[in-house]
Write a structure and sequence with these properties.
Layout: E1 36-45, H1 47-59, E2 64-66, E3 74-83, H2 87-101, E4 112-116, E5 119-123, H3 129-146, E6 157-164, H4 168-179, E7 188-197, E8 206-214
Antiparallel strand pairs: 1-3, 1-7, 2-6, 4-5, 5-6, 7-8
Helix pairs in contact: 2-3
């Protein structure tokens, strides 16, 4: 396996977490210590996809507190708090993931709008070749990087908003299905390793890109 060369027992953890779980650390959202980071691997949207999303935000913003387009991503594997000594391994995994998905990354991905509790998300079909590949590799990555298989079913989605008010989201979803069915291809442009920090004075995390791995022939947006 790709990771066997780099992995040692002391580098594994045994508690993969879902990116949607927002647990603030005891230090008010800062790093647990100076030598640890809260990290995850994510797909980042292409430039054309972000342009489309900005169009939605300008046209359909009432009652929705949108995520910043620059922060949008689709999580492949959330690592939780990891020691700095493992970051190099996670960077290698990001590049490996980008190369593995490159053959199917240009298959047109058509998401569906969905409200899930307090979230507004774009949901993708997990039966498509692209997401089947992502699901399989994510499970492999979880075993190699976290020491166990994924504890939850993989959910192919991208969160657009974490706070909605009124009835406008339902109206927006209905409008999007009829007027905005076409999405750019490719939808995503590559894989990034992110650090996620939850500040004490805000609910949304701040993201720092630790590694940027475009699909071959593409340039990521930043």
């Amino acid at each position: 396996m790709f990771y066997d060369t780099y992995m040692t027992p002391s580098m594994k953890t045994t508690r993969p977490q879902n990116e949607e779980i927002r647990v603030v650390n005891s230090d008010g959202g800062k790093r647990a210590s100076s030598d640890k980071r809260r990290i995850f691997l994510g797909l980042n949207p292409s430039t054309d996809t972000l342009t489309k999303i900005r169009f939605f935000q300008d046209r359909l913003s009432s009652g929705v507190r949108w995520e910043s387009p620059e922060d949008l991503h689709s999580t492949v594997l959330f690592g939780g708090i990891q020691p700095d000594r493992t970051i190099g391994l996670w960077k290698k995994a990001a590049c490996h993931l980008a190369l593995s998905l490159a053959p199917v990354c240009r298959i047109h991905l058509v998401p569906a709008w969905e409200m899930k509790r307090h979230l507004l998300v774009l949901v993708f079909s997990d039966s498509s070749p692209f997401w089947r590949a992502v699901t399989e590799i994510a499970d492999d990555l979880s075993t190699g990087l976290l020491g166990r298989r994924c504890s939850r079913p993989f959910w192919p989605h991208m969160t657009l908003s974490r706070k909605m008010t009124g009835n406008s989201p339902s109206r927006m979803i209905a409008t999007s299905k009829t007027d905005f069915a076409e999405w750019p291809a490719p939808f995503f442009s590559g894989i990034r390793l992110y650090e996620s920090v939850l500040p004490a004075n805000r609910k949304s995390p701040r993201y720092t890109i630790l590694e940027d791995c475009p699909f071959p022939g593409m340039t990521n947006v930043g």
